[in-house]
Design a protein that fits this description.
With 427 residues, the protein is of the alpha/beta class. It has 15 helices and 19 strands. The two termini are 32 Å apart. Bound molecules: ligand PMT. Ligand PMT binds next to helix 10, helix 12 and strand 16.
Length: 427
C-alpha cells in the first residue's frame, strides 16, 4: 500500500471557508491524510466539528490546548506535515505570515515547518488588489511559498473580480498531481548556465545582452522536478532561484568559465542556456573612459567558449547547447552542434520580442540523427519538454564513457522529495 501524503490544511476566516470541508474530502479521495488547523476567525464561519467529521481527526486550533499538545505538540504537527495548504487564506493571515508572526497555532506551524507551504487566497477583489496585500504576497513568494489563485468571478460580497478561492477539486488536483517528468533524472547532477554576462569596459560601463535568465532558470526548475541535483551558474539577473536549486552568481564570461570548471567534474549533464559574450575587451580601463570629441576604438578579443571547453574534456558530461539565431535558425544550430561537438542543441529563434526576456519560447531540439520541435509555450513547459528529450537521449548507465553518476539514480525521488522540489509560484 502506498503511504498517504500528509496534508496539514489551515483554514482562516473568510466566507470561502464553507468550501473547505469539501476540500478535505477531495484531498482524502486522492489518497491524502488530512489534519485541519483552524484560526479563531475561521470558527465563526464553519464549526471545528464539521472538519473533525470529514477528516476523521480532531480539529486543532489552540496553541495553548494542553490536552491536544499532549497528543501531538505543535512542533510534532509541523514535522508531521508533508504539505501545508492554507485554504482559504485571508488578507489578515497573509499579512501575519509575511510578518513572521507566531502568535496562534496556524502561524506557529507555518514558521516551524520544513514542508512546502501553499496558499489559496480568498477575499474581496479590492482587498486582493491592495498594495499592502500584494507586497505581502510578493514577500511570501520570495520565501518560496506557492500561491494558488485566486480565481476571478462573482464574489460573496456581490462584486465581480479577482479574489475567489480556487475550487476544491482544482486545489486537490494541483496539490497531489505528480510532478512532470518525476524521477526521469533522479540522482543525476545537472549543471546549467543562465542569463547574460557582463564584460567590463571601465568602472561604470560594460558590454552585455538582453538575456533575462528566464529560460535557464526554467530549465533548472524542470531538471529539479525531474529529480536531479541542480546547480545553476548565473550571470546578473533579477530572478528568484527555484526551490532546491544551488545558485552561483558570476559576472563575466571568464567568471562563468571558472565557475563551470569548478563544478563540471561532478556533472552528468551540462546545459548551456546562458547568452555568454563572444567577445571581451582586451583591456579594462581603470578610470572612466572620457569623451574626447571623436570616435572611440574598442579592442575586443574572443571570450572563452565555455561549452566547447566542456565538450572537449576527456571525460565529459552529456553536453546540451542553445543556439540563439535570428536567421537560418536550424541550419546555424546544426553547424554549432557539429563545430562544438555537442550531444544536443536547442535552436532558439531570437529577435525583437522573441525569446529574450519573454515569458514564452519555442525550440527545435536537434541531436545527431534526430530532431524535435517543441511548440510555443511558457518557458517552464518548454524546459520540461527539453528535459524529457535529454533523459531519452542519455546513454545507458553501463558502458557509458561519461562520469558514472547514472549509478546514483537511486531512491532520491521519493514522493516527499518530489513535492519539496517543486517550485513555489503564483499560478
Ligand atoms: O535568458 P532569456 O531572456 O530567457 O532568453 C533565453 C535565451 C534566448 C538567452 C536562451 O534560450 C538562448 O538561446 N541561449 C543561448 C544564447 C547564446 O549565447 O547562443 P549562441 O548561439 O551565441 O551560443 C551557442 C552556445 O554556446 C550556447 O549554449 C551558449 O551558452 C554557448 N556559449 C557561447 C559563447 C561562449 N563564449 N561560451 C558559451 O558557452
Amino acid at each position: 500500500m502506498t503511504p498517504k501524503t500528509r496534508v496539514l490544511l489551515g483554514v482562516t476566516g473568510g466566507i470561502a471557508a464553507y468550501k473547505s470541508p469539501d476540500l478535505v474530502r477531495r484531498l482524502m479521495e486522492r489518497g491524502a491524510d488530512v489534519q485541519v488547523v483552524m484560526t479563531s476567525a475561521a470558527q465563526r464561519f464553519v464549526s471545528p466539528m464539521t472538519f473533525q467529521a470529514v477528516s476523521g481527526r480532531p480539529t486543532r486550533s489552540d496553541l495553548w490546548d494542553g490536552t491536544a499538545e499532549a497528543a501531538m505538540g505543535h512542533i510534532e504537527l509541523a514535522r508531521w506535515a508533508e504539505i501545508v495548504l492554507i485554504a482559504p487564506a485571508s488578507a489578515d493571515f497573509i499579512a501575519r505570515l509575511a510578518g513572521g508572526r507566531a502568535d496562534d497555532l496556524l502561524c506557529t506551524l507555518c514558521v516551524a515547518t520544513e514542508a512546502p507551504i501553499m496558499l489559496a487566497p480568498a477575499m474581496n477583489r479590492i482587498m486582493w488588489a491592495n498594495k499592502a496585500t500584494q507586497a505581502n504576497v510578493d514577500t511570501l513568494i520570495g520565501r518560496g511559498i506557492r500561491i494558488l489563485g485566486p480565481a476571478s468571478g462573482n464574489q460573496a460580497c456581490g462584486e465581480v473580480g479577482a479574489g475567489r478561492m480556487w475550487e476544491p477539486a482544482q486545489l486537490a488536483e494541483t496539490l497531489l498531481a505528480p510532478p512532470v517528468n518525476a524521477g526521469l533524472l533522479a540522482g543525476l547532477n545537472v549543471l546549467i548556465t543562465a542569463g547574460p554576462t557582463r564584460e567590463r569596459l571601465d568602472p561604470v560601463r560594460y558590454l552585455t545582452n538582453r538575456s533575462s535568465g528566464k529560460m535557464g532558470f526554467a530549465v533548472a526548475e524542470a531538471a529539479r522536478e525531474a529529480g536531479a541535483h541542480v546547480t545553476v551558474v548565473s550571470g546578473p539577473v533579477q530572478l528568484q532561484t527555484p526551490t532546491g536549486v544551488t545558485r552561483i552568481n558570476v559576472e563575466s564570461a571568464r567568471d562563468m568559465y571558472a565557475a563551470v570548471h569548478r563544478q563540471v567534474g561532478d556533472a552528468d549533464i551540462f546545459i548551456a542556456a546562458a547568452a555568454v559574450a563572444d567577445f571581451q575587451p582586451v583591456k579594462v580601463a581603470k578610470q572612466k573612459i572620457k569623451k574626447q570629441g571623436g570616435s572611440v576604438q574598442l579592442e575586443l578579443e574572443p571570450a572563452p567558449d565555455i561549452i566547447k571547453s566542456v565538450a572537449d574534456m576527456a571525460k565529459r558530461p552529456f553536453v546540451v547547447g542553445f543556439a540563439a539565431e535570428t536567421n537560418d535558425v536550424e541550419d546555424n544550430a546544426r553547424i554549432k552542434l557539429k563545430r562544438k561537438k555537442l550531444d544536443m542543441i536547442a535552436a532558439n529563434e531570437v529577435g525583437d520580442g522573441i525569446a529574450f526576456d519573454c515569458e514564452d519560447n519555442t525550440l527545435t531540439v536537434i541531436w545527431p540523427g534526430g530532431k524535435m520541435d517543441v511548440p510555443r509555450g511558457p518557458k517552464v513547459e518548454v524546459a520540461r519538454a527539453l528535459i524529457a528529450l535529454i533523459a531519452k537521449r542519455l546513454p545507458p548507465p553501463d558502458g557509458s564513457p561519461r562520469r558514472g553518476a547514472r549509478k546514483r539514480r537511486t531512491a532520491a525521488a521519493l514522493p516527499r522529495d518530489r513535492v519539496r522540489g517543486r517550485r513555489p509560484r503564483r499560478v
